[in-house]
Amino acid sequence: MQEFDLFVIGAGSGGVRCARIAAQNGARVGIAERRHWGGTCVHLGCVPKKLMVYAAETGRLIEDAPAFGWDVKRPSTFNWAEFIAGKDREIDRLNGIYISMLQKAGIDLFTGDARLIDANTIEISPSPLAPDEPVQRVRAKKIVLATGSTPVRLGIPGAELAITSDELFHLPTQPKKVAVIGSGYIGVEFAGILAGMGSQVDLFYRQPLPLRGFDEEVRTHVQELIDLYGITQHPGTSPARLEALGEGGGVRLVLEDGATYDVDAVIMATGRRAAVDSLGLDAAGVKLENGHVAAGVDAKTNVPSIYAIGDIRDQYNLTPTAIAEGHLLAERLFAPQGRSWSFETLPKAVFFSSPVGTVGLSEEEAIRKHNVTIYTSRFTPMRQALPKRAGKILMKLVVDRDSDVVLGAHMVGPDAPEIIQMLAIAVTAGLTKKQLDQTVALHPSSAEEFVTMRMPTRSVDKQP
Predict the structure, then answer these.
(1) Which of 144, 174, 179, 262 could form a disulfide with 80 if both were Cys (CB 3.0 to 4.6 A apart)?
(2) Does the annotation count 443 as an active-site position?
(3) Residue of 43, 292, 410, 443 with catalytic role
């Protein structure tokens, strides 16, 4: 039986980083993956989703091109099959890079379903990716659980007729009429993607506004923009059941109020849960909390030899935070410490047709502890002037009125994620509004608005 200093279950972003840093610092490391080297982000999340966003954006750029002198017309149909094939080639390339990267670091790779036998023993069984592999057992002084999360469907009759984001990436043909259930970032993103590719999209959600958890002003602005992209919104609605439409295919969505919608596909973007079902946590005595592995800030579980990072522990649920958690854990276990990341000022993005970027506190969060001054700006970006494309940018700063420190920055509009990444440095550094004002603007750009907003929009006192 092979012995390791560290064994990682799950080769996603967090698991790969943890394994590599540990190996670089002299640990003997093994890692197991059942299906996707590189994890959800590379295969069923960030990367293919962003490629889809680019595809949808390209269609709009072609539409706008005549206004800039180009004699072109947007094709009447989108070549779904050609795009999916290109996307798959890129994902295969990245998959190979992850495998090569791990091998070059001297890490032992195991392809199969890994489960805990006890607090130091792992069994790896054949998986669909490697059905002919023998069952193997290994031992490790330290074990890291990094299996991520998986989409969930609503518990309604006919839920099995819906697809999730996982299946969407591999559909053989493009659904022309789509119902998207859920208005978190996944639902909003895929509604924008499919509409941009020419599908008729209806977006159903229970809340009065999309993107629950984001700044309220941002949510209102996004709701207005969703209409401009040809997506029909149904706020305050709840699905009751799904029904198959017969041999011709398609699905009927029935709402609780009795309204029905016949579509080619129903996409449930209704949350994710930790991928823990086959890990053998009971055998090792690892505790769960609300379906996720219970782990502290240091990634320790209740079992001294076992740690958990990434989505499996339900703290941040983003690729960069999983990478940071894996890096920090490997250094705590095998290397000199001292590196840190500011998780409190974690930048986030929603890659909608008009993307969202945000960092720091929302207005609603800020007023729980601070008296605040709010600065906002709305304007039409220059790119939209000639083609007369509707839709304004929103920029917003949340500033502590007493200290002048910028507590949060929010943007909806073209290049928002790229711009907010830079604003995240200012928010993390605790810069003041005065220091932003001292920065000379880069003109003409949208980003310059963040250093030229001089007049406050409003002041809000701390709410008890």
Answers:
(1) 174
(2) yes
(3) 443
